[in-house]
Recover the amino acids of this structure.
């Protein structure tokens, strides 16, 4: 990949432009050279046919691939922590309005929504409905210590809770993602890579979840979203704007653009890390740029009773990886204990003991009198872009296109609208 301008535009569209320029130059030379107009036109026509053939996808996309942009590009985010107790309160610097049961209600600057008997109620407005959509005249709704752009769609959940789904344009959504998934004071070229990866991931979810009630969570189950970008996130917002609409593709389909904190030296195959089949750009690559991360190498000492409680066993005495990936990450783990042994996947073992302590599945473990001593490298599942590696490459003077080419080799960066 090579960056074109400031937007990381790469791939087939760039090759077509280069081909067109070369053909035009060839045509200009052919006529003065005495070849004659008919022959010159024939040369030009053959070149056009070749260029078109070169512009076609190099490989057929997988059956599950996402080939189109989401209609309208409005993303729906399930917001955690709002309405879990059966009441949701919102405020605004403007006036809040509610849409429910085909009617519009003017609610002023504050509103409390309650769940009762499978319905939602706003007492001061005499409103009771199965779902309510809130918006504000100034475009911002505040809930607790966070602010959200766009609309907040509410419906009753299980156990008397309220389910809140924030709906807004994807580019505005990314303002509240990039600076929380990557430190907002990191180099701009790294932030632009994060913007492209986060947009690609979000759009792939929007397509696959189109028939569901929301597209993504607002936490690490999808990617972290904290509403309106706060002060100090200006560079992250700039990165979103300078890469507007750009996504990673392969074979004409939107790529599952995974990313993680620190690979520890080599990224993992997405198939090994997450299960399933993925295209070649997610096969894993050597990194070499994330050594500044505090997670590049790590240790953890975990007591036996903690292991027992986490795994539901008693008397753990030995832990060993029974299978490893090509990068050395544990694919399966066996834990021997008084009652026998427990077998679990490497990812399941890490989740059970806590991903903040077992930071990756690239670990070794030894039993000792105080418990189990782990030594490992990296932080996260290891698939796709290494964020600390992207930072290292940006500090070394590499641009967004070069960094994305490193971690997603063979992928293209394209404007999403070109996929429609």
């Amino acid at each position: 990949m090579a960056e074109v301008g400031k937007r990381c535009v790469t791939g087939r569209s760039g090759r077509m432009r280069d081909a067109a320029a070369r053909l035009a130059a060839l045509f200009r030379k052919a006529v003065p050279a005495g070849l004659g107009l008919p022959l010159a036109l024939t040369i030009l026509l053959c070149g056009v046919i070749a260029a078109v053939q070169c512009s076609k996808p190099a490989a057929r996309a997988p059956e599950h691939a996402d080939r189109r942009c989401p209609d309208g590009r409005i993303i729906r985010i399930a917001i955690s922590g709002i309405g879990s107790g059966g009441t949701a309160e919102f405020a605004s610097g403007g006036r809040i309005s509610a849409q429910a049961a085909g009617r519009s209600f003017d609610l002023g600057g504050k509103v409390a929504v309650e769940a009762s008997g499978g319905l939602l109620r706003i007492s001061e407005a005499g409103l009771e409905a199965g779902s309510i959509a809130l918006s504000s005249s100034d475009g911002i709704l505040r809930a607790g210590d966070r602010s959200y752009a766009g609309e907040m769609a509410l419906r009753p959940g299980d156990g008397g809770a309220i389910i809140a789904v924030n709906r807004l344009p994807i580019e505005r959504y990314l303002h509240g993602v990039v600076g929380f998934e990557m430190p907002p004071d990191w180099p701009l070229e790294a932030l632009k890579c994060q913007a492209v990866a986060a947009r690609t991931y979000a759009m792939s979810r929007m397509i696959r979840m189109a028939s569901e009630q929301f597209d993504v969570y607002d936490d690490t189950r999808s990617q972290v979203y904290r509403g309106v970008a706060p002060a100090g996130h200006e560079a992250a917002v700039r990165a979103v704007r300078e890469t507007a609409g750009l996504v990673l593709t392969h074979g004409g389909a939107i790529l599952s653009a995974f990313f993680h904190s620190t690979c520890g030296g080599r990224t993992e195959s997405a198939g090994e890390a997450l299960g399933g089949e993925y295209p070649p750009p997610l096969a894993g690559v050597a990194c070499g740029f994330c050594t500044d991360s505090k997670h590049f190498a790590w240790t953890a000492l975990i007591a036996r009773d903690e292991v027992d409680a986490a795994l539901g066993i008693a008397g753990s005495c030995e832990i060993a990886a029974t299978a490893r990936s090509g990068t050395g990450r544990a694919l399966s783990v066996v834990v021997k204990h008084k009652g026998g042994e427990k077998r679990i996947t490497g990812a399941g073992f890490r989740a059970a003991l806590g991903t903040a302590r077992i930071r990756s599945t690239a670990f070794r473990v030894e039993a000792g009198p105080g418990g189990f001593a782990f030594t490992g490298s990296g932080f996260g599942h290891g698939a796709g872009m290494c964020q600390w590696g992207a930072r290292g490459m940006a500090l070394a003077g590499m641009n967004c296109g070069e960094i994305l080419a490193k971690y997603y080799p063979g992928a293209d960066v394209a404007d999403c609208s070109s996929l429609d």
Observations:
- The mean pLDDT is 87.
